[in-house]
Design goal:
With 61 residues, this protein is an all-alpha fold. It has a domain of 30 residues. Helix content is 49%, strand content 0%. The protein contains three helices and no strands. The termini are far apart.
């Protein structure tokens, strides 16, 4: 457990302004426009209705 706190202190010293208003790279990333959502063409479900009922039919063989 002490090792985890030592590591945390080390990283806090290495990156004191990470993900803050002083982190230039992070601010550039946050200020960019959002990516458009992915579009999946010709997608449709396989159908099949009630899957629980179909599963029950397998048990009645």
């Amino acid at each position: 457990m002490a090792e985890a706190t030592d590591n945390q202190k080390t990283f806090e010293e290495m990156f004191p302004h990470r993900f803050s208003s002083e982190d230039r790279e992070y601010q550039e990333y946050v200020s960019r426009p959002a990516d458009p959502p992915p579009v999946v063409e010709n997608w449709r479900s396989r159908g099949g209705g009630n899957r629980a009922r179909r599963r029950a039919n397998w048990l009645v063989l």
